Amino acid sequence: MCNPCSRHFVRVLLVLALAAPGVAASPAMEQRLPASTRGYISFPCVPEFVRAWENTCLGALWNDPAMKPFCDDVRARVAKGRLYARWTLGFSLDDLAEVASGELALALLDTTTGPGLVLLVDVAGKEKKADNILKSLRTRLALAGAKSAHQTVAGVTATVYELPARFRIGSLRRVIHLRKGTLVVAASSVAAVEAVLASPVASAPGASSLADRQAFRETAGRASKDLTRAHVRWFIEPIGLARAIRGLTVTRPSRTDYLGLLQREGFGALQGVGGAAVLATSACELSGRMYVYAPGPYQGAMRLLDFPDIEASDPPAFVPENAAGFLALSIDWRKTFETIGELFDRHIGGQPGVFEAVVRATRDASDGPRVDLRRDVIGRLDNNLWMVGLRPGDNRPLSWLHAVQVRGEKSFATAIRRLCENDPAIRSVRFGEYGMLQIGVKKGKDGFTSSQAPALLTVHHHHLMMAQAPISIRSVESMPAASLVSNVGADTTLVSLKGESSGKAFLRGMFRNEELFRETFHWLRNGTKDEKAPLSKALRAALPAGLADDACGTMKKLPEFDKLQRKPCGAWVISGVNRRNGWLVTVQLPRQGGSGGMLTTERGISQQTTPARARQEPRPPRAH
Prior knowledge:
The chain is of the alpha+beta class and about 625 residues long. The protein folds into three domains: about 30-205, no CATH class; about 215-315 and about 490-624, no CATH class; about 330-485, no CATH class. It contains 20 helices and 24 strands. Helix 19 (about 535-540) runs antiparallel to helix 20 (about 545-555). About 35% of the residues are buried.
Protein backbone atom coordinates (compact mmCIF):
# COMPACT_ATOMS: atom_id res chain seq x y z
CA MET A 1 0.00 0.00 0.00
CA CYS A 2 1.39 3.38 -1.03
CA ASN A 3 1.98 5.90 1.70
CA PRO A 4 0.56 9.46 1.37
CA CYS A 5 3.99 10.96 0.64
CA SER A 6 4.57 8.71 -2.34
CA ARG A 7 1.07 9.43 -3.69
CA HIS A 8 1.75 13.19 -3.38
CA PHE A 9 5.05 12.73 -5.19
CA VAL A 10 3.31 10.93 -8.06
CA ARG A 11 0.75 13.76 -8.33
CA VAL A 12 3.57 16.30 -8.56
CA LEU A 13 5.21 14.29 -11.35
CA LEU A 14 1.90 14.09 -13.24
CA VAL A 15 1.39 17.85 -12.96
CA LEU A 16 4.91 18.49 -14.25
CA ALA A 17 4.42 16.04 -17.11
CA LEU A 18 1.14 17.69 -18.14
CA ALA A 19 2.71 21.14 -17.89
CA ALA A 20 5.79 20.24 -19.92
CA PRO A 21 4.12 20.39 -23.36
CA GLY A 22 2.89 23.92 -22.58
CA VAL A 23 6.42 24.99 -21.69
CA ALA A 24 7.88 23.42 -24.80
CA ALA A 25 5.25 25.13 -26.93
CA SER A 26 6.77 28.51 -26.12
CA PRO A 27 9.90 28.59 -28.30
CA ALA A 28 12.77 31.04 -27.96
CA MET A 29 12.28 34.22 -29.97
CA GLU A 30 15.24 33.48 -32.25
CA GLN A 31 13.22 30.47 -33.47
CA ARG A 32 10.24 32.69 -34.22
CA LEU A 33 12.26 35.34 -36.05
CA PRO A 34 13.06 34.74 -39.73
CA ALA A 35 16.59 34.27 -41.06
CA SER A 36 16.34 37.74 -42.62
CA THR A 37 16.69 39.27 -39.13
CA ARG A 38 19.57 41.76 -39.17
CA GLY A 39 19.68 42.49 -35.46
CA TYR A 40 17.86 41.64 -32.25
CA ILE A 41 18.03 41.98 -28.48
CA SER A 42 16.26 39.55 -26.18
CA PHE A 43 15.45 39.39 -22.47
CA PRO A 44 14.79 35.66 -21.89
CA CYS A 45 12.74 36.32 -18.74
CA VAL A 46 11.71 39.92 -18.11
CA PRO A 47 10.69 39.46 -14.43
CA GLU A 48 14.06 37.85 -13.67
CA PHE A 49 15.87 40.64 -15.52
CA VAL A 50 14.02 43.34 -13.56
CA ARG A 51 14.83 41.68 -10.23
CA ALA A 52 18.48 41.23 -11.17
CA TRP A 53 18.78 44.80 -12.48
CA GLU A 54 17.41 46.23 -9.24
CA ASN A 55 20.10 44.30 -7.34
CA THR A 56 22.94 46.04 -9.19
CA CYS A 57 24.47 49.44 -8.50
CA LEU A 58 23.32 50.45 -12.00
CA GLY A 59 19.71 49.74 -11.09
CA ALA A 60 20.07 51.62 -7.81
CA LEU A 61 21.21 54.69 -9.73
CA TRP A 62 17.79 55.10 -11.36
CA ASN A 63 16.11 55.02 -7.97
CA ASP A 64 18.35 57.78 -6.64
CA PRO A 65 16.28 60.68 -5.19
CA ALA A 66 18.20 63.14 -7.38
CA MET A 67 16.96 61.27 -10.48
CA LYS A 68 13.29 61.69 -9.55
CA PRO A 69 12.67 64.93 -11.55
CA PHE A 70 14.14 63.31 -14.65
CA CYS A 71 12.10 60.10 -14.28
CA ASP A 72 8.91 62.03 -13.47
CA ASP A 73 9.40 64.22 -16.55
CA VAL A 74 9.74 61.20 -18.83
CA ARG A 75 6.60 59.58 -17.38
CA ALA A 76 4.64 62.84 -17.64
CA ARG A 77 5.55 63.34 -21.31
CA VAL A 78 4.60 59.74 -22.11
CA ALA A 79 1.29 60.06 -20.24
CA LYS A 80 0.43 63.24 -22.17
CA GLY A 81 1.17 61.53 -25.46
CA ARG A 82 4.02 63.93 -26.24
CA LEU A 83 6.67 61.22 -26.36
CA TYR A 84 5.97 58.36 -28.73
CA ALA A 85 8.14 55.35 -27.88
CA ARG A 86 9.26 54.87 -31.46
CA TRP A 87 11.74 52.08 -30.97
CA THR A 88 9.36 50.13 -28.71
CA LEU A 89 6.45 50.70 -31.12
CA GLY A 90 4.20 52.62 -28.75
CA PHE A 91 4.88 50.64 -25.58
CA SER A 92 6.53 52.31 -22.62
CA LEU A 93 9.12 50.45 -20.56
CA ASP A 94 6.60 50.31 -17.69
CA ASP A 95 4.06 48.66 -20.04
CA LEU A 96 6.55 46.00 -21.05
CA ALA A 97 7.71 45.28 -17.50
CA GLU A 98 4.08 44.92 -16.38
CA VAL A 99 2.83 42.62 -19.14
CA ALA A 100 5.84 40.39 -19.95
CA SER A 101 5.80 37.08 -18.11
CA GLY A 102 8.59 35.47 -20.14
CA GLU A 103 10.78 36.51 -23.02
CA LEU A 104 10.78 39.88 -24.76
CA ALA A 105 12.63 40.58 -28.01
CA LEU A 106 13.07 43.61 -30.27
CA ALA A 107 14.31 42.90 -33.80
CA LEU A 108 14.96 44.61 -37.12
CA LEU A 109 14.47 42.44 -40.18
CA ASP A 110 14.25 42.62 -43.95
CA THR A 111 10.81 41.92 -45.42
CA THR A 112 9.25 41.85 -48.87
CA THR A 113 8.34 45.54 -48.53
CA GLY A 114 11.59 46.74 -46.91
CA PRO A 115 13.06 46.80 -43.40
CA GLY A 116 10.65 46.24 -40.52
CA LEU A 117 10.88 46.70 -36.76
CA VAL A 118 9.14 44.10 -34.61
CA LEU A 119 8.58 43.65 -30.86
CA LEU A 120 7.65 40.21 -29.46
CA VAL A 121 6.44 39.70 -25.89
CA ASP A 122 5.57 36.43 -24.14
CA VAL A 123 2.50 37.20 -21.97
CA ALA A 124 1.62 33.66 -20.84
CA GLY A 125 -0.60 33.94 -17.76
CA LYS A 126 -1.09 37.68 -18.31
CA GLU A 127 -3.31 37.62 -21.39
CA LYS A 128 -6.06 39.79 -19.83
CA LYS A 129 -3.52 42.33 -18.63
CA ALA A 130 -2.02 42.37 -22.13
CA ASP A 131 -5.43 43.09 -23.64
CA ASN A 132 -5.95 45.94 -21.17
CA ILE A 133 -2.59 47.48 -22.04
CA LEU A 134 -3.35 47.19 -25.76
CA LYS A 135 -6.58 49.09 -25.12
CA SER A 136 -4.75 51.77 -23.13
CA LEU A 137 -2.27 52.09 -25.97
CA ARG A 138 -5.16 52.74 -28.33
CA THR A 139 -6.18 55.68 -26.14
CA ARG A 140 -2.62 56.91 -25.75
CA LEU A 141 -1.87 56.80 -29.48
CA ALA A 142 -5.20 58.43 -30.28
CA LEU A 143 -4.30 61.23 -27.88
CA ALA A 144 -1.06 61.66 -29.83
CA GLY A 145 -3.09 62.01 -33.05
CA ALA A 146 -2.79 58.49 -34.51
CA LYS A 147 -5.67 57.08 -36.59
CA SER A 148 -6.53 53.40 -36.13
CA ALA A 149 -8.24 50.66 -38.14
CA HIS A 150 -8.65 46.90 -37.84
CA GLN A 151 -7.03 44.53 -40.33
CA THR A 152 -6.61 40.76 -40.55
CA VAL A 153 -2.92 39.85 -40.64
CA ALA A 154 -1.81 36.21 -40.93
CA GLY A 155 -5.28 35.13 -39.78
CA VAL A 156 -5.28 37.37 -36.69
CA THR A 157 -7.19 40.62 -36.15
CA ALA A 158 -4.67 43.44 -35.70
CA THR A 159 -4.98 47.16 -34.99
CA VAL A 160 -3.12 49.33 -37.48
CA TYR A 161 -2.22 52.87 -36.39
CA GLU A 162 -1.30 55.58 -38.88
CA LEU A 163 1.03 57.93 -37.03
CA PRO A 164 0.76 61.73 -37.28
CA ALA A 165 3.40 63.51 -39.34
CA ARG A 166 5.37 64.75 -36.31
CA PHE A 167 6.09 61.17 -35.20
CA ARG A 168 7.15 59.83 -38.60
CA ILE A 169 10.72 59.12 -39.61
CA GLY A 170 11.49 57.52 -42.97
CA SER A 171 9.27 54.48 -43.41
CA LEU A 172 8.37 54.42 -39.70
CA ARG A 173 4.86 55.68 -40.41
CA ARG A 174 2.58 53.14 -38.76
CA VAL A 175 2.36 50.67 -35.89
CA ILE A 176 0.58 47.30 -35.86
CA HIS A 177 -0.51 45.68 -32.58
CA LEU A 178 -1.99 42.21 -32.07
CA ARG A 179 -2.07 39.28 -29.67
CA LYS A 180 -1.94 35.71 -30.88
CA GLY A 181 -2.37 33.35 -27.95
CA THR A 182 0.38 34.11 -25.45
CA LEU A 183 2.35 36.23 -27.90
CA VAL A 184 1.94 40.00 -28.26
CA VAL A 185 3.33 41.36 -31.52
CA ALA A 186 4.01 44.99 -32.37
CA ALA A 187 5.56 45.93 -35.70
CA SER A 188 6.21 48.83 -38.06
CA SER A 189 4.66 47.08 -41.08
CA VAL A 190 2.22 44.34 -41.99
CA ALA A 191 4.99 42.49 -43.83
CA ALA A 192 7.05 42.36 -40.62
CA VAL A 193 4.14 40.78 -38.73
CA GLU A 194 3.60 38.24 -41.51
CA ALA A 195 7.32 37.38 -41.57
CA VAL A 196 7.25 36.58 -37.85
CA LEU A 197 3.94 34.70 -37.71
CA ALA A 198 4.81 32.74 -40.84
CA SER A 199 8.30 31.87 -39.57
CA PRO A 200 8.46 28.13 -38.81
CA VAL A 201 8.60 27.57 -35.09
CA ALA A 202 8.73 23.83 -35.38
CA SER A 203 10.78 24.15 -38.55
CA ALA A 204 9.32 22.70 -41.67
CA PRO A 205 11.79 21.09 -44.10
CA GLY A 206 13.86 23.75 -45.83
CA ALA A 207 12.54 26.56 -43.64
CA SER A 208 14.98 28.80 -41.80
CA SER A 209 14.90 30.97 -38.69
CA LEU A 210 17.42 33.26 -37.05
CA ALA A 211 18.48 30.38 -34.80
CA ASP A 212 19.46 28.35 -37.88
CA ARG A 213 22.02 30.88 -39.14
CA GLN A 214 25.65 29.94 -38.59
CA ALA A 215 26.58 33.52 -37.69
CA PHE A 216 23.97 33.44 -34.91
CA ARG A 217 25.10 30.04 -33.61
CA GLU A 218 28.75 31.16 -33.54
CA THR A 219 28.01 34.37 -31.60
CA ALA A 220 24.82 34.77 -29.55
CA GLY A 221 24.26 31.01 -29.52
CA ARG A 222 27.73 30.29 -28.17
CA ALA A 223 27.51 33.09 -25.58
CA SER A 224 24.16 31.73 -24.38
CA LYS A 225 25.79 28.34 -23.82
CA ASP A 226 28.59 29.98 -21.84
CA LEU A 227 26.11 31.95 -19.70
CA THR A 228 23.26 29.52 -19.23
CA ARG A 229 21.27 31.92 -17.03
CA ALA A 230 21.82 35.00 -19.19
CA HIS A 231 19.48 37.92 -18.58
CA VAL A 232 20.19 39.56 -21.98
CA ARG A 233 21.10 38.16 -25.39
CA TRP A 234 21.76 40.01 -28.63
CA PHE A 235 22.92 39.61 -32.22
CA ILE A 236 23.66 41.91 -35.15
CA GLU A 237 24.80 41.48 -38.74
CA PRO A 238 26.83 44.74 -38.89
CA ILE A 239 26.48 45.85 -42.51
CA GLY A 240 23.05 44.26 -42.92
CA LEU A 241 21.77 46.05 -39.79
CA ALA A 242 23.20 49.39 -40.94
CA ARG A 243 21.46 48.99 -44.31
CA ALA A 244 18.18 48.10 -42.59
CA ILE A 245 18.36 51.11 -40.26
CA ARG A 246 19.13 53.36 -43.21
CA GLY A 247 16.23 51.92 -45.20
CA LEU A 248 13.89 52.31 -42.24
CA THR A 249 14.78 55.84 -41.14
CA VAL A 250 16.42 57.72 -44.02
CA THR A 251 14.24 59.37 -46.67
CA ARG A 252 17.06 60.99 -48.64
CA PRO A 253 20.06 58.65 -48.88
CA SER A 254 23.57 60.09 -49.16
CA ARG A 255 25.13 60.34 -52.59
CA THR A 256 28.06 58.26 -51.34
CA ASP A 257 27.27 54.64 -50.50
CA TYR A 258 29.56 54.27 -47.49
CA LEU A 259 28.19 50.81 -46.68
CA GLY A 260 28.99 49.68 -50.21
CA LEU A 261 32.50 51.06 -49.74
CA LEU A 262 32.90 49.06 -46.53
CA GLN A 263 31.68 45.95 -48.33
CA ARG A 264 34.22 46.44 -51.13
CA GLU A 265 36.96 46.93 -48.55
CA GLY A 266 36.32 43.49 -47.08
CA PHE A 267 34.20 44.32 -44.03
CA GLY A 268 31.56 41.88 -45.23
CA ALA A 269 33.74 39.32 -43.42
CA LEU A 270 32.06 40.60 -40.23
CA GLN A 271 29.15 38.20 -40.63
CA GLY A 272 27.86 38.40 -37.09
CA VAL A 273 28.43 39.94 -33.66
CA GLY A 274 26.48 38.61 -30.71
CA GLY A 275 26.64 37.99 -27.02
CA ALA A 276 24.95 37.53 -23.68
CA ALA A 277 25.15 39.03 -20.20
CA VAL A 278 24.20 37.95 -16.71
CA LEU A 279 23.47 40.38 -13.87
CA ALA A 280 23.84 40.36 -10.10
CA THR A 281 25.92 37.27 -9.36
CA SER A 282 27.82 36.92 -6.11
CA ALA A 283 31.03 37.99 -7.85
CA CYS A 284 29.89 40.51 -10.47
CA GLU A 285 27.34 43.24 -10.97
CA LEU A 286 27.47 42.30 -14.65
CA SER A 287 29.36 39.72 -16.68
CA GLY A 288 29.10 39.62 -20.45
CA ARG A 289 30.61 37.75 -23.38
CA MET A 290 30.63 38.95 -26.97
CA TYR A 291 31.66 36.78 -29.91
CA VAL A 292 32.57 38.17 -33.33
CA TYR A 293 32.17 35.77 -36.26
CA ALA A 294 34.51 36.94 -39.02
CA PRO A 295 36.02 34.05 -40.98
CA GLY A 296 39.04 34.90 -43.13
CA PRO A 297 40.94 35.37 -45.29
CA TYR A 298 40.66 39.13 -44.89
CA GLN A 299 40.89 41.52 -47.80
CA GLY A 300 41.29 45.28 -48.17
CA ALA A 301 40.87 47.53 -45.15
CA MET A 302 39.41 44.64 -43.14
CA ARG A 303 43.03 43.61 -42.51
CA LEU A 304 43.27 46.58 -40.14
CA LEU A 305 41.17 44.52 -37.71
CA ASP A 306 43.65 41.64 -37.56
CA PHE A 307 44.91 42.16 -33.99
CA PRO A 308 47.66 39.83 -32.66
CA ASP A 309 47.43 38.28 -29.19
CA ILE A 310 50.36 39.31 -26.98
CA GLU A 311 51.42 38.77 -23.36
CA ALA A 312 49.86 40.98 -20.70
CA SER A 313 51.78 44.07 -19.56
CA ASP A 314 51.20 46.72 -16.90
CA PRO A 315 49.96 50.22 -17.75
CA PRO A 316 52.83 52.71 -18.27
CA ALA A 317 54.30 54.15 -15.09
CA PHE A 318 53.26 57.71 -16.06
CA VAL A 319 49.54 56.83 -15.79
CA PRO A 320 48.39 58.30 -12.42
CA GLU A 321 46.50 56.16 -9.93
CA ASN A 322 43.40 58.37 -10.25
CA ALA A 323 43.13 57.79 -14.01
CA ALA A 324 39.55 57.21 -15.13
CA GLY A 325 40.58 54.10 -17.03
CA PHE A 326 42.58 52.67 -19.89
CA LEU A 327 42.45 50.33 -22.87
CA ALA A 328 45.43 48.49 -24.34
CA LEU A 329 44.97 47.37 -27.95
CA SER A 330 47.55 45.18 -29.69
CA ILE A 331 48.43 46.33 -33.23
CA ASP A 332 50.89 44.95 -35.78
CA TRP A 333 52.15 48.33 -36.99
CA ARG A 334 54.09 46.93 -39.95
CA LYS A 335 51.03 45.20 -41.40
CA THR A 336 48.91 48.26 -40.62
CA PHE A 337 51.38 50.50 -42.46
CA GLU A 338 51.31 48.32 -45.59
CA THR A 339 47.51 48.10 -45.54
CA ILE A 340 47.24 51.89 -45.27
CA GLY A 341 49.57 52.13 -48.25
CA GLU A 342 47.23 49.99 -50.35
CA LEU A 343 44.24 52.10 -49.26
CA PHE A 344 46.16 55.25 -50.22
CA ASP A 345 46.82 53.89 -53.69
CA ARG A 346 43.18 52.88 -54.25
CA HIS A 347 41.41 55.97 -52.92
CA ILE A 348 43.93 58.83 -53.17
CA GLY A 349 46.80 57.91 -55.47
CA GLY A 350 44.52 56.35 -58.06
CA GLN A 351 47.01 53.65 -59.03
CA PRO A 352 49.39 51.13 -57.41
CA GLY A 353 52.82 52.35 -56.40
CA VAL A 354 51.99 55.97 -55.49
CA PHE A 355 52.33 55.39 -51.74
CA GLU A 356 55.62 53.56 -52.20
CA ALA A 357 56.93 56.49 -54.24
CA VAL A 358 56.07 58.83 -51.36
CA VAL A 359 57.90 56.54 -48.92
CA ARG A 360 61.01 56.48 -51.14
CA ALA A 361 60.96 60.25 -51.58
CA THR A 362 60.66 60.75 -47.82
CA ARG A 363 63.76 58.59 -47.40
CA ASP A 364 65.93 59.55 -50.40
CA ALA A 365 65.01 63.02 -51.71
CA SER A 366 67.78 65.54 -51.06
CA ASP A 367 65.26 68.25 -50.18
CA GLY A 368 63.15 65.91 -48.06
CA PRO A 369 63.29 64.87 -44.39
CA ARG A 370 65.55 61.85 -45.18
CA VAL A 371 63.56 59.57 -42.89
CA ASP A 372 63.02 55.86 -43.55
CA LEU A 373 59.42 55.48 -42.38
CA ARG A 374 59.59 51.69 -42.07
CA ARG A 375 62.87 51.64 -40.14
CA ASP A 376 62.96 54.93 -38.23
CA VAL A 377 59.27 55.22 -37.28
CA ILE A 378 57.12 52.11 -37.76
CA GLY A 379 59.90 49.68 -36.81
CA ARG A 380 60.41 51.40 -33.44
CA LEU A 381 56.79 51.15 -32.23
CA ASP A 382 55.73 48.64 -29.58
CA ASN A 383 52.62 46.55 -30.25
CA ASN A 384 50.50 48.04 -27.44
CA LEU A 385 48.47 51.18 -28.14
CA TRP A 386 47.50 52.61 -24.75
CA MET A 387 44.35 54.78 -24.54
CA VAL A 388 44.19 56.47 -21.13
CA GLY A 389 41.24 58.46 -19.78
CA LEU A 390 42.26 61.39 -17.59
CA ARG A 391 40.05 63.70 -15.52
CA PRO A 392 41.74 67.13 -15.26
CA GLY A 393 39.18 68.24 -12.64
CA ASP A 394 35.71 67.44 -11.31
CA ASN A 395 34.01 69.99 -13.56
CA ARG A 396 36.10 69.29 -16.67
CA PRO A 397 35.21 66.73 -19.34
CA LEU A 398 37.23 63.56 -19.67
CA SER A 399 40.27 63.81 -21.95
CA TRP A 400 42.08 60.97 -23.71
CA LEU A 401 45.78 60.37 -24.06
CA HIS A 402 47.05 57.85 -26.64
CA ALA A 403 50.53 56.43 -26.14
CA VAL A 404 52.80 53.85 -27.80
CA GLN A 405 56.14 52.82 -26.34
CA VAL A 406 59.07 53.45 -28.66
CA ARG A 407 62.52 51.88 -28.93
CA GLY A 408 65.35 54.39 -29.18
CA GLU A 409 63.56 57.48 -27.87
CA LYS A 410 66.09 60.06 -29.13
CA SER A 411 66.34 58.62 -32.66
CA PHE A 412 62.55 58.32 -32.88
CA ALA A 413 62.02 61.91 -31.71
CA THR A 414 64.55 63.14 -34.28
CA ALA A 415 62.72 61.31 -37.07
CA ILE A 416 59.38 62.82 -36.03
CA ARG A 417 60.91 66.31 -35.88
CA ARG A 418 62.36 65.95 -39.39
CA LEU A 419 59.05 64.76 -40.78
CA CYS A 420 57.24 67.81 -39.42
CA GLU A 421 59.80 70.51 -40.22
CA ASN A 422 58.75 73.33 -42.56
CA ASP A 423 55.06 72.39 -42.40
CA PRO A 424 53.04 75.62 -41.92
CA ALA A 425 50.20 73.68 -40.25
CA ILE A 426 52.48 72.40 -37.48
CA ARG A 427 53.90 74.48 -34.62
CA SER A 428 56.47 73.35 -32.08
CA VAL A 429 56.15 74.42 -28.44
CA ARG A 430 58.38 73.81 -25.44
CA PHE A 431 57.69 70.55 -23.60
CA GLY A 432 60.00 68.03 -21.97
CA GLU A 433 63.23 67.15 -23.78
CA TYR A 434 61.93 66.97 -27.34
CA GLY A 435 59.15 69.58 -27.43
CA MET A 436 55.51 69.16 -28.40
CA LEU A 437 53.98 69.53 -31.87
CA GLN A 438 50.61 71.21 -32.45
CA ILE A 439 49.23 69.74 -35.67
CA GLY A 440 46.42 71.36 -37.62
CA VAL A 441 46.92 74.99 -36.64
CA LYS A 442 46.32 77.78 -39.16
CA LYS A 443 48.61 80.76 -39.52
CA GLY A 444 46.80 84.08 -39.55
CA LYS A 445 47.84 87.72 -39.32
CA ASP A 446 48.33 87.51 -35.57
CA GLY A 447 50.19 84.21 -35.57
CA PHE A 448 48.86 80.68 -35.28
CA THR A 449 45.12 80.37 -34.75
CA SER A 450 42.65 77.56 -35.12
CA SER A 451 38.88 77.25 -34.98
CA GLN A 452 39.25 73.94 -33.19
CA ALA A 453 41.86 72.48 -30.87
CA PRO A 454 44.84 71.11 -32.82
CA ALA A 455 46.10 67.59 -32.37
CA LEU A 456 49.10 67.35 -30.05
CA LEU A 457 52.05 65.01 -30.42
CA THR A 458 55.22 64.52 -28.39
CA VAL A 459 57.84 61.93 -27.45
CA HIS A 460 58.07 61.67 -23.67
CA HIS A 461 58.74 58.95 -21.07
CA HIS A 462 59.90 56.67 -23.92
CA HIS A 463 56.43 56.88 -25.50
CA LEU A 464 54.92 58.56 -28.52
CA MET A 465 52.01 60.50 -27.01
CA MET A 466 49.00 61.94 -28.85
CA ALA A 467 46.08 63.95 -27.47
CA GLN A 468 43.52 66.64 -28.33
CA ALA A 469 43.66 68.63 -25.08
CA PRO A 470 47.00 70.12 -23.92
CA ILE A 471 46.16 69.27 -20.31
CA SER A 472 46.15 65.55 -21.20
CA ILE A 473 49.85 65.59 -22.08
CA ARG A 474 50.89 68.18 -19.51
CA SER A 475 49.26 66.15 -16.73
CA VAL A 476 51.79 63.35 -17.34
CA GLU A 477 54.83 65.62 -17.88
CA SER A 478 56.25 64.44 -14.55
CA MET A 479 56.06 60.95 -13.16
CA PRO A 480 53.15 60.74 -10.67
CA ALA A 481 53.82 60.20 -6.99
CA ALA A 482 51.57 57.14 -7.22
CA SER A 483 50.91 55.45 -10.55
CA LEU A 484 48.06 53.18 -11.52
CA VAL A 485 50.36 50.18 -11.73
CA SER A 486 51.82 50.87 -8.26
CA ASN A 487 48.31 50.60 -6.83
CA VAL A 488 47.65 47.12 -8.18
CA GLY A 489 48.10 45.52 -4.80
CA ALA A 490 45.39 47.69 -3.24
CA ASP A 491 42.94 47.80 -6.16
CA THR A 492 40.89 44.60 -6.42
CA THR A 493 39.77 45.60 -9.90
CA LEU A 494 43.33 45.69 -11.21
CA VAL A 495 44.08 42.41 -9.46
CA SER A 496 41.06 40.97 -11.30
CA LEU A 497 42.28 42.42 -14.60
CA LYS A 498 45.70 40.84 -14.19
CA GLY A 499 44.09 37.51 -13.38
CA GLU A 500 41.68 37.61 -16.33
CA SER A 501 44.38 38.74 -18.76
CA SER A 502 47.24 36.52 -17.62
CA GLY A 503 47.16 34.70 -20.95
CA LYS A 504 47.77 36.25 -24.35
CA ALA A 505 45.16 38.75 -25.53
CA PHE A 506 44.77 41.58 -28.03
CA LEU A 507 42.62 43.80 -25.79
CA ARG A 508 42.72 44.64 -22.10
CA GLY A 509 41.23 47.48 -20.18
CA MET A 510 39.72 48.93 -17.05
CA PHE A 511 37.36 51.90 -16.62
CA ARG A 512 36.02 53.23 -13.35
CA ASN A 513 32.24 53.05 -13.26
CA GLU A 514 31.84 56.40 -11.55
CA GLU A 515 33.94 58.15 -14.21
CA LEU A 516 31.94 56.50 -16.99
CA PHE A 517 28.65 57.82 -15.61
CA ARG A 518 30.11 61.22 -14.74
CA GLU A 519 31.17 61.65 -18.37
CA THR A 520 27.78 60.42 -19.65
CA PHE A 521 25.88 62.89 -17.46
CA HIS A 522 28.22 65.71 -18.52
CA TRP A 523 27.72 64.86 -22.20
CA LEU A 524 23.93 64.66 -21.97
CA ARG A 525 23.52 67.82 -19.89
CA ASN A 526 25.97 70.01 -21.79
CA GLY A 527 25.10 68.54 -25.17
CA THR A 528 21.48 69.76 -24.86
CA LYS A 529 21.89 73.02 -22.91
CA ASP A 530 20.94 75.12 -25.96
CA GLU A 531 20.09 74.73 -29.65
CA LYS A 532 23.73 75.11 -30.71
CA ALA A 533 25.00 72.35 -28.41
CA PRO A 534 26.25 69.27 -30.33
CA LEU A 535 23.69 66.77 -29.04
CA SER A 536 20.83 69.24 -29.57
CA LYS A 537 21.91 69.75 -33.18
CA ALA A 538 22.14 65.99 -33.74
CA LEU A 539 18.68 65.37 -32.25
CA ARG A 540 17.11 68.16 -34.30
CA ALA A 541 18.70 66.76 -37.45
CA ALA A 542 17.42 63.23 -36.76
CA LEU A 543 13.99 63.84 -35.15
CA PRO A 544 10.90 65.88 -35.95
CA ALA A 545 10.89 69.28 -34.23
CA GLY A 546 8.39 68.38 -31.47
CA LEU A 547 10.19 65.17 -30.50
CA ALA A 548 13.61 66.84 -30.56
CA ASP A 549 12.35 69.59 -28.22
CA ASP A 550 10.88 66.98 -25.87
CA ALA A 551 14.08 64.94 -25.84
CA CYS A 552 16.25 68.00 -25.15
CA GLY A 553 13.84 69.18 -22.45
CA THR A 554 14.00 65.81 -20.73
CA MET A 555 17.81 65.73 -20.81
CA LYS A 556 17.90 69.10 -19.02
CA LYS A 557 16.18 67.41 -16.07
CA LEU A 558 19.20 65.20 -15.46
CA PRO A 559 20.83 66.18 -12.17
CA GLU A 560 24.43 67.18 -11.80
CA PHE A 561 26.38 64.01 -11.22
CA ASP A 562 27.78 65.15 -7.86
CA LYS A 563 24.23 65.55 -6.51
CA LEU A 564 23.57 61.81 -6.80
CA GLN A 565 23.39 60.05 -3.46
CA ARG A 566 24.03 56.60 -4.93
CA LYS A 567 27.02 56.99 -7.22
CA PRO A 568 28.01 53.93 -9.30
CA CYS A 569 30.99 52.12 -7.83
CA GLY A 570 33.54 49.58 -8.99
CA ALA A 571 35.25 49.42 -12.35
CA TRP A 572 34.59 47.73 -15.67
CA VAL A 573 37.16 45.14 -16.77
CA ILE A 574 37.48 44.18 -20.43
CA SER A 575 39.62 41.67 -22.32
CA GLY A 576 39.66 40.28 -25.85
CA VAL A 577 41.26 37.19 -27.36
CA ASN A 578 41.46 35.72 -30.83
CA ARG A 579 39.61 32.51 -31.55
CA ARG A 580 38.92 30.47 -34.62
CA ASN A 581 36.98 32.60 -37.15
CA GLY A 582 36.82 35.71 -35.00
CA TRP A 583 37.21 37.12 -31.51
CA LEU A 584 35.88 36.78 -27.99
CA VAL A 585 35.52 39.90 -25.84
CA THR A 586 34.57 39.63 -22.16
CA VAL A 587 33.27 42.50 -20.02
CA GLN A 588 32.81 42.41 -16.26
CA LEU A 589 31.81 44.79 -13.49
CA PRO A 590 33.12 43.03 -10.35
CA ARG A 591 31.32 43.63 -7.08
CA GLN A 592 33.21 45.71 -4.57
CA GLY A 593 35.19 43.34 -2.38
CA GLY A 594 34.30 40.33 -4.53
CA SER A 595 36.70 38.04 -6.32
CA GLY A 596 35.87 39.74 -9.61
CA GLY A 597 36.45 36.63 -11.69
CA MET A 598 34.14 34.21 -13.49
CA LEU A 599 35.00 30.70 -14.49
CA THR A 600 33.11 29.66 -17.61
CA THR A 601 32.55 25.97 -18.06
CA GLU A 602 30.47 23.91 -20.44
CA ARG A 603 27.69 23.97 -17.83
CA GLY A 604 27.66 27.72 -17.34
CA ILE A 605 29.20 30.03 -14.73
CA SER A 606 30.91 29.26 -11.46
CA GLN A 607 31.87 32.14 -9.20
CA GLN A 608 35.61 31.61 -9.20
CA THR A 609 38.58 33.50 -10.53
CA THR A 610 40.46 31.84 -13.36
CA PRO A 611 42.76 33.04 -16.14
CA ALA A 612 41.19 33.84 -19.48
CA ARG A 613 43.56 31.37 -21.15
CA ALA A 614 41.26 28.54 -20.00
CA ARG A 615 38.77 29.56 -22.68
CA GLN A 616 41.14 30.49 -25.50
CA GLU A 617 40.97 28.50 -28.70
CA PRO A 618 43.75 28.06 -31.25
CA ARG A 619 43.35 30.36 -34.21
CA PRO A 620 44.83 29.46 -37.59
CA PRO A 621 46.82 32.20 -39.36
CA ARG A 622 44.75 34.29 -41.75
CA ALA A 623 45.90 34.49 -45.34
CA HIS A 624 46.18 38.03 -46.64
